[in-house]
């Protein structure tokens, strides 16, 4: 694998994509409205 030109960029790119995705997901979860979370958590308990 060391003979392939630019092969070192793939692990760095993968780490950046992974990091950006999970930081974005964490930001989305922390800023999501609490009322909507409570509403969705009660959905399995509703008879409708």
Automatic annotation (TrEMBL):
Organism, by scientific name, is: Flavobacterium zhoui
Q: What is this protein called?
A: CcoQ/FixQ family Cbb3-type cytochrome c oxidase assembly chaperone
Taxonomically, which superkingdom?
Bacteria
Is Membrane there in the keyword field? Answer: yes
Q: Where are the transmembrane segments?
A: 12-32
Q: Which UniProt keywords apply?
A: Membrane, Transmembrane, Transmembrane helix
């Amino acid at each position: 694998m060391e003979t392939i030109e630019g092969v070192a960029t793939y692990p760095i790119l993968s780490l950046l994509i992974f990091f950006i995705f999970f930081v974005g997901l964490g930001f989305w979860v922390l800023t999501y409205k609490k009322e909507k979370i409570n509403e969705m958590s009660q959905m399995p308990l509703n008879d409708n």
